[in-house]
């Protein structure tokens, strides 16, 4: 039996073991997939020990995605562009392939599950942390008319604009810098919802949007989605679909089988609701 794990800190809340257990059952692949807590100063030694004990691959979550990028020995194009890694595939002679499946997970959820094609759209991406940098290349590959990155600390959004400038039409700045622009889709990639807060986005930015997407997965509307709804946006989505889709892409990389996701998204939603307070 092959051994996999998701590593992070904290990790107890992770739904990845649940999702991969569903995929394994669905495809008949025999795996063990656990959640592994790494001390904040011991990510590398946690990975090495897991591998020594027979590990085949790993998912990496907060706060280790940038460290995981440095530990990999080769990268997929999307991981290279993001400079962040959420999937390891262990290879011969201590090699580690690093991939980043967050962006393709988001794109699949928006385009396939929510039936919202991204080509020629004006997209506002709020936030400039690890989650934002992981999704920029896959979003630009869908050829939107514009991808605007807005962040509280505008220098980080401008740095992302420069990092991805050769891949498509991208702008970076503070939220206020985009007043006067019209957006079809607004994606919240900040961690504000984790703290029950709202990013400082002027209401004008929401005026023409038809879809609001919060990457945080939640059983109730986040402050961002509540605000979007109050501005008249009717299509609202949280990050549950993205979470399952990014896991499906990791599963494909490891096992060469693409699991179906719709059924697992529904099961995960039911599982999350059953634990909601
Ligand atoms: P980071 O810590 O790397 O980045 C946090 C970002 O949020 C920064 O841009 C920060 O701005 C901004 N921010 C934090 N608080 C506020 C606030 N009150 N107002 C405005 N901006 C704020 O986090 P990640 O990028 O790793 O994660 C972001 C979110 O994405 C999390 O909620 C996470 O759960 C979710 N996520 C979901 C996934 C899924 O599969 N569904 C996958 C990955 C992430 P500044 O730079 O100014 O500090």
TrEMBL record:
<dbReference type="GO" id="GO:0005829">
    <property type="term" value="C:cytosol"/>
</dbReference>
<dbReference type="GO" id="GO:0019632">
    <property type="term" value="P:shikimate metabolic process"/>
</dbReference>
<feature type="binding site">
    <location>
        <position position="246"/>
    </location>
    <ligand>
        <name>shikimate</name>
    </ligand>
</feature>
<feature type="domain" description="Shikimate dehydrogenase substrate binding N-terminal">
    <location>
        <begin position="6"/>
        <end position="87"/>
    </location>
</feature>
<dbReference type="InterPro" id="IPR046346">
    <property type="entry name" value="Aminoacid_DH-like_N_sf"/>
</dbReference>
<feature type="domain" description="SDH C-terminal">
    <location>
        <begin position="239"/>
        <end position="268"/>
    </location>
</feature>
<keyword id="KW-0521">NADP</keyword>
<feature type="active site" description="Proton acceptor">
    <location>
        <position position="65"/>
    </location>
</feature>
<comment type="pathway">
    <text>Metabolic intermediate biosynthesis; chorismate biosynthesis; chorismate from D-erythrose 4-phosphate and phosphoenolpyruvate: step 4/7.</text>
</comment>
<dbReference type="InterPro" id="IPR006151">
    <property type="entry name" value="Shikm_DH/Glu-tRNA_Rdtase"/>
</dbReference>
<comment type="function">
    <text>Involved in the biosynthesis of the chorismate, which leads to the biosynthesis of aromatic amino acids. Catalyzes the reversible NADPH linked reduction of 3-dehydroshikimate (DHSA) to yield shikimate (SA).</text>
</comment>
<feature type="binding site">
    <location>
        <begin position="14"/>
        <end position="16"/>
    </location>
    <ligand>
        <name>shikimate</name>
    </ligand>
</feature>
<dbReference type="InterPro" id="IPR011342">
    <property type="entry name" value="Shikimate_DH"/>
</dbReference>
<dbReference type="InterPro" id="IPR022893">
    <property type="entry name" value="Shikimate_DH_fam"/>
</dbReference>
<feature type="binding site">
    <location>
        <position position="215"/>
    </location>
    <ligand>
        <name>NADP(+)</name>
    </ligand>
</feature>
<feature type="binding site">
    <location>
        <position position="61"/>
    </location>
    <ligand>
        <name>shikimate</name>
    </ligand>
</feature>
<comment type="subunit">
    <text>Homodimer.</text>
</comment>
<dbReference type="InterPro" id="IPR036291">
    <property type="entry name" value="NAD(P)-bd_dom_sf"/>
</dbReference>
<feature type="binding site">
    <location>
        <begin position="127"/>
        <end position="131"/>
    </location>
    <ligand>
        <name>NADP(+)</name>
    </ligand>
</feature>
<dbReference type="InterPro" id="IPR041121">
    <property type="entry name" value="SDH_C"/>
</dbReference>
<keyword id="KW-0560">Oxidoreductase</keyword>
<dbReference type="Pfam" id="PF18317">
    <property type="entry name" value="SDH_C"/>
</dbReference>
<dbReference type="Pfam" id="PF01488">
    <property type="entry name" value="Shikimate_DH"/>
</dbReference>
<feature type="binding site">
    <location>
        <position position="217"/>
    </location>
    <ligand>
        <name>shikimate</name>
    </ligand>
</feature>
<dbReference type="GO" id="GO:0009423">
    <property type="term" value="P:chorismate biosynthetic process"/>
</dbReference>
<feature type="binding site">
    <location>
        <position position="86"/>
    </location>
    <ligand>
        <name>shikimate</name>
    </ligand>
</feature>
<comment type="similarity">
    <text>Belongs to the shikimate dehydrogenase family.</text>
</comment>
<dbReference type="GO" id="GO:0050661">
    <property type="term" value="F:NADP binding"/>
</dbReference>
<dbReference type="GO" id="GO:0008652">
    <property type="term" value="P:amino acid biosynthetic process"/>
</dbReference>
<dbReference type="Pfam" id="PF08501">
    <property type="entry name" value="Shikimate_dh_N"/>
</dbReference>
<feature type="binding site">
    <location>
        <position position="77"/>
    </location>
    <ligand>
        <name>NADP(+)</name>
    </ligand>
</feature>
<dbReference type="InterPro" id="IPR013708">
    <property type="entry name" value="Shikimate_DH-bd_N"/>
</dbReference>
<keyword id="KW-0057">Aromatic amino acid biosynthesis</keyword>
<dbReference type="GO" id="GO:0004764">
    <property type="term" value="F:shikimate 3-dehydrogenase (NADP+) activity"/>
</dbReference>
<keyword id="KW-0028">Amino-acid biosynthesis</keyword>
<feature type="binding site">
    <location>
        <position position="239"/>
    </location>
    <ligand>
        <name>NADP(+)</name>
    </ligand>
</feature>
<feature type="binding site">
    <location>
        <position position="102"/>
    </location>
    <ligand>
        <name>shikimate</name>
    </ligand>
</feature>
<protein>
    <recommendedName>
        <fullName>Shikimate dehydrogenase (NADP(+))</fullName>
        <ecNumber>1.1.1.25</ecNumber>
    </recommendedName>
</protein>
<feature type="binding site">
    <location>
        <begin position="151"/>
        <end position="156"/>
    </location>
    <ligand>
        <name>NADP(+)</name>
    </ligand>
</feature>
<feature type="domain" description="Quinate/shikimate 5-dehydrogenase/glutamyl-tRNA reductase">
    <location>
        <begin position="117"/>
        <end position="193"/>
    </location>
</feature>
<dbReference type="GO" id="GO:0009073">
    <property type="term" value="P:aromatic amino acid family biosynthetic process"/>
</dbReference>
């Amino acid at each position: 039996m092959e051994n996999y794990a998701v590593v992070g800190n904290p990790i107890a809340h992770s739904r990845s073991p649940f999702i991969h257990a569903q995929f394994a059952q669905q495809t008949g692949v025999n795996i063990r997939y656990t959640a592994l807590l790494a001390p904040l100063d011991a990510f590398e030694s946690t990975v090495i020990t897991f591998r020594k004990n027979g590990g085949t691959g790993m998912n990496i979550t907060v706060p280790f995605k940038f460290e995981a990028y440095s530990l990999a020995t080769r990268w997929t194009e999307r991981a290279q562009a993001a400079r962040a890694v959420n999937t390891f595939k262990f290879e011969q002679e201590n090699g580690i392939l690093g991939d980043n499946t967050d962006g393709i997970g988001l794109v699949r959820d928006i385009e396939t599950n929510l039936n919202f094609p991204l080509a020629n759209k004006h997209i506002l991406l709020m936030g400039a942390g690890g989650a934002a940098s992981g999704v920029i290349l896959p979003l630009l590959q869908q050829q939107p008319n514009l991808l605007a990155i807005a962040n509280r600390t505008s220098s980080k959004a401008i740095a992302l604009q420069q990092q991805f400038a050769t891949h498509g039409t991208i702008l970076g700045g503070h939220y206020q810098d985009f007043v006067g622009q019209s957006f079809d889709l607004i994606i919240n990639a900040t961690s504000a919802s984790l703290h029950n807060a709202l990013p400082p986005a002027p209401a004008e930015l929401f005026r023409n949007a038809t879809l609001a997407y919060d990457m945080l997965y939640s059983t109730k509307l986040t402050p961002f989605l509540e605000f979007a709804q109050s501005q008249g946006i009717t299509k609202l989505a949280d990050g549950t679909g993205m979470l399952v889709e990014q896991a499906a892409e990791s599963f494909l990389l490891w096992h060469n089988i693409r699991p179906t996701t719709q059924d697992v998204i529904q099961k995960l939603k039911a599982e999350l609701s059953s634990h909601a307070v």
